């Protein structure tokens, strides 16, 4: 029994001695990190920001550096979406940074990336504008990409999209035309509108300001008599031509088009 206890104590002493030796070796200043290799297609993260993080957050040597803390420090930069940090023997740290690919503005407080994720950063770029409940950012991003594709052959593009609390969608185009799409079948409604746009609204001498696409068999467009007079004879001729094809309601100043 005594011999067994003595052997166990010797073994524990050996393990403890090995741990102490490894601890001292690892923490000696003979394994410094000499290189930081930052990778990625970086448009907004600059050298000064990287140097600041390296100086402030990277404490320790090759073995003792806290990778999670280093990763978190880089992820705090406004334009950084994702960071991967790893050691490369004998003295290098690799930092792979993925930036947000900006798609639109979200109100006045945030930006939206192409994945439909919100982030806070500053940008001077001319961007489309989104507004609505924050949990709808991904849905609005999908709609925007689809609408942009559908409208491109018409030389139209969405510049503002608004989603109400009731999930009703409104889109403003680069011409100033506002499209009321509602809550249901928004892609189907826009597709019908796009199909008749070249033969209808595109021919008006003066652009319409509002189109309600929520009708089951067509849409209604705001085109008042005052605008018609401003357009002159050409505007009246177009209206009369369209009247024969798709109807006209002078009482409300709307053009009803069958899709």
- Counting structural domains, the number is 3
Shape designation: elongated
Question: From the 3D coordinates, which CATH architecture of the largest domain would you assign?
Answer: 3-Layer(aba) Sandwich
Mean pLDDT equals 82
What does this structure look like?
This protein is elongated. The chain has seven helices and 14 strands. A hairpin with a 3-residue loop joins strand 2 (80-88) and strand 3 (92-99). Helix 4 (137-151) packs parallel to helix 5. The strands form two sheets. Strands 6-5-4-7-8-9-10-11-12-14-13 form an eleven-stranded mixed β-sheet. It has a three-stranded mixed β-sheet with strand order 1-3-2, with helices on one face. With 259 residues, the protein is an alpha/beta fold.
Could you outline the blueprint of secondary structure elements for this entry?
Layout: H1 2-27, E1 35-39, H2 47-57, H3 67-75, E2 80-88, E3 92-99, E4 102-106, E5 110-113, E6 118-119, E7 129-131, H4 137-151, E8 158-163, E9 169-173, E10 178-182, H5 186-196, E11 210-212, E12 218-222, H6 225-231, H7 233-246, E13 248-249, E14 254-258
Parallel strand pairs: 1-3, 4-7, 7-8, 10-11
Antiparallel strand pairs: 2-3, 4-5, 5-6, 8-9, 9-10, 11-12, 12-14, 13-14
């Amino acid at each position: 029994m005594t011999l067994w206890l003595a052997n166990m104590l010797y073994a524990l002493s050996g393990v403890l001695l090995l741990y102490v030796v490894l601890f001292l070796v690892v923490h000696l200043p003979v394994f410094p990190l000499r290189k930081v290799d930052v990778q990625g297609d970086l448009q907004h993260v600059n050298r000064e920001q990287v140097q600041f993080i390296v100086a402030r957050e990277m404490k320790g040597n090759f073995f003792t550096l806290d990778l999670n803390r280093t990763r978190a420090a880089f992820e705090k930069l406004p334009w950084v979406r994702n960071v991967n940090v790893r050691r490369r023997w004998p003295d290098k740290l690799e930092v792979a940074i993925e930036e947000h690919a900006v798609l639109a503005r979200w109100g006045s407080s945030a930006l939206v990336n192409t994945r439909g994720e919100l982030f806070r950063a500053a940008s001077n770029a001319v961007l489309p504008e989104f507004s609505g409940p924050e949990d709808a950012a991904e849905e609005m991003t999908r709609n925007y990409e689809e609408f942009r594709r559908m409208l491109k052959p018409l030389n139209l593009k969405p510049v503002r999209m608004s989603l109400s609390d009731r999930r009703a969608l409104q889109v403003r185009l680069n011409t100033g035309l506002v499209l009321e799409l509602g809550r249901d079948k928004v892609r189907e409604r826009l597709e019908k509108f796009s199909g008749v746009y070249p033969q209808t609204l595109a021919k008006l001498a003066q652009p319409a300001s509002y189109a309600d696409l929520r009708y089951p068999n067509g849409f209604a467009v705001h085109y008042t008599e005052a605008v018609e007079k401003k357009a002159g004879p050409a505007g009246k001729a177009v209206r009369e031509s369209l009247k024969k094809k798709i109807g006209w309601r002078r009482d409300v100043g709307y053009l009803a088009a069958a899709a």
